[in-house]
Design brief:
The structure is a single chain. Helix 2 runs parallel beside helix 5. Among the domains are: about 200 residues, endopeptidase domain like (from Nostoc punctiforme) (endopeptidase fold (from Nostoc punctiforme), Alpha-Beta Complex), CATH 3.90.1720.10; about 70 residues, SH3 Domains (SH3 type barrels, Roll). The longest helix has 16 residues. It is an alpha+beta fold.
């Protein structure tokens, strides 16, 4: 069966979800920063202690390298179409076949096995109670807290199957691991990495609704690329026919700015919401000042109604952009210096969702997480542990394609944009990198934004630079 592949095997689901919990956007992933501090006694002996401070990251990338034009000028044919619409469709079908948790809601079943879904919820509870977490007040969270959240889930265990409802997001909403808005943290140095945060959804995302909490405030939903708990007030119920029509809309408008304001009047004064790059809506009409689209909203009973809305013309495109290197780099650099947001926290983006937004503009569907994204397209290289940094740099320069290749290290992913003075460069959303203070104590260089960088950052710590930790390079083609 297509549905709930991840709950067929509790072990597989738990293993994948554990990776999601471990990944911290950079804290444990990109440069091996942990909850420890390193003291160097000599080149081979290390002591560990609690982290002491965060320090400001010194951005050494030359200013002229911080625009798309610099990198576009290095390309032989930046306007060549890499994949046609037909080829992108075939690419998406191949990606869906990789079993990387991409769900086709048009074919989602009307019911699922109750016991299988309960196993999914239990796996989440086990993961949350297997580690120590802290509240915003730095207080340890007892396991009873997570159990109380689990007890609020409304499922009749005597029913063989759960009847599926369908819905659509009517505003931006966070996807949570447990049905709760509280923020929890794995350590006192990572208070901006909320471990309940799974992802976030923009306006207009179709959903399958599995169940709700007893107080009706939270709904467990399956979105095309992720699943989890969302506030019920952020969705409106509808039927599969409406969902299918929305997905298959022949004319669409695609958001191409970082954030596009949406208004309910042609004068664009009645503000409704904003949508992030890559979001798409059925296109109704366009003129010199705005694009008119259809958006979902909710009536007083929580049911879907569709409205007309207006987006400034410069913020959206009628149809997907052509898949060219120029367009990819242009979209990527629009996000330069955008804040980092773990799992879409506060309307921002982490390393994986940043790349997802870019490629959504071309109609290319990529899975949610970094370790799933690197499975897509063509794998160019999987480096061996013995490969040296200079060997990796040489391979990337000679084989990766500017704007089309992802560079991956466990828990972090970047877009390769080219080389300068024989050094490969990438653009990526990053939380921080390790460093040393004046007392030789390992600290955190706090970045918290989208940057252009070489692959040497983090090299203050032996074995911690990006280039040393890179394991894979692929091609989205």
């Amino acid at each position: 069966m297509k549905y709930f592949v991840i709950i067929v095997s509790l072990f597989i689901y738990t293993n994948l979800f554990a990776q999601k919990i471990e990944n911290t956007g950079i804290c444990l992933d990109c440069v091996r920063i942990s909850s420890k501090t390193v003291f160097i006694k000599n080149p081979v002996e290390l002591n560990y202690g609690d982290p002491q401070e965060r320090i400001v990251f010194a951005d050494t990338t030359a200013k002229n390298m911080k625009t798309a034009g610099f990198w576009i000028s290095k390309l032989e044919n930046p306007d060549a179409v890499i994949m046609s619409k037909k080829e992108i469709k075939a690419f998406n079908e191949k990606t869906a076949g990789l079993k990387v948790n991409i769900t086709d809601l048009k074919t989602y079943p009307d019911k699922i096995n109750t016991l299988d879904f309960i196993k999914t919820l239990e796996a989440r509870l086990i993961l949350m109670t297997s580690k120590q977490y802290f509240s915003e007040k730095s207080e340890e969270i007892p396991s009873e807290y997570f159990q109380s959240l689990q007890n609020n889930i409304d499922i009749d265990k005597n029913m063989t199957d759960l009847q599926i409802k369908f819905a659509m997001t009517v505003k931006y909403g966070d996807i949570r691991i447990m049905p709760c808005a509280d923020k929890i943290y794995s350590g006192i140095t990572s208070f901006d990495l909320d471990r309940f945060q799974e992802e976030s959804l923009d306006l207009g995302v179709p959903l399958a609704v599995i169940c709700r909490t007893k107080d009706k405030k939270w709904s467990y939903v399956i979105a095309p690329l992720e699943e989890g708990w969302i506030k019920t007030e952020n969705i409106a119920l509808t039927d599969k026919k409406t969902i299918t029509k929305w997905i298959d809309a022949k004319k669409i408008a695609v958001i191409t700015s970082v954030k596009a304001d949406i208004f309910l009047d042609e004068q664009m004064k009645d503000y409704f919401e904003y949508a992030r790059m890559g979001s798409k809506f059925p296109l109704l009409s366009k003129n010199k000042t705005h694009i008119c689209v259809q958006i979902p909203s909710s009536d007083n009973n929580g049911n879907l109604i569709l409205k007309k809305a207006y987006i400034p013309k410069e913020d959206a495109n009628a149809g997907f952009l052509k898949y060219t290197q120029r367009n990819i780099l242009t979209q990527a650099f629009k996000h330069l210096n955008s804040p980092y947001g773990w799992g879409g926290t506060n309307g921002e983006q982490d390393c994986s969702s940043y790349l997802g937004q870019i490629f959504n503009c071309f109609g290319i569907i990529l899975p949610e997480t970094s370790f799933q994204k690197i499975k897509c397209g063509t794998l160019l290289k999987e480096f061996a542990s013995a490969d040296q940094p200079n060997q990796k740099e040489e391979f990337i320069i000679n084989n990766a394609t500017e704007g089309l290749s992802f560079i991956y290290l466990p828990g972090h992913i970047m877009l390769y944009i080219g080389n300068n003075e024989n050094k490969p460069y990438a653009v990526h959303a990053i939380w921080g990198v390790s460093a040393y203070n004046k007392e030789n104590r390992k600290t955190l260089k706090y970045i918290n934004r989208v940057i252009v960088s070489d692959l040497d950052i983090g090299n203050e710590v032996a074995g911690n630079s990006l280039i040393e930790r890179i394991t894979k390079v692929n091609l989205i083609k």
